[in-house]
Specification:
Length: 101
């Protein structure tokens, strides 16, 4: 996974518009850049769409702090000889950083 991404924190907006044409442009009516737009479909209502968008923002904004906490926990577990638990934490770190088996 590349390390280049939009820095946080992200802000959950409630307004978005798609302007059509040969290339679609997304706008949110503010001076902020819009990273993505979540839209509801036949299988998803507005409440679920809003909950999904809120979860993306929450995960984005807490990811780096949680990853640092996992790394700290891993080091402590390895130092304490808790190898099984340390391996489980290391697997979570791998998943969070895009490393797959």
């Amino acid at each position: 996974m590349t390390q280049q991404h939009t820095p946080g924190p992200l802000v959950l907006g409630k307004l978005g518009v798609i302007k059509g044409g040969p290339v679609h442009h997304f706008t949110n009516g503010s001076g902020q850049s819009q990273l993505f737009m979540a839209i509801a479909g036949e299988d998803m209502g507005h409440e679920e769409r809003d909950a999904n968008a809120a979860r993306v923002v929450l995960c984005w904004n807490t990811h780096d702090a949680m990853l640092e906490a996992l790394r700290t926990a891993s080091a402590a577990l390895w130092a304490a000889g808790e190898n099984k638990e340390a391996r489980a934490v290391d697997r979570a770190i791998d998943l969070a950083t895009g490393i797959t088996p």
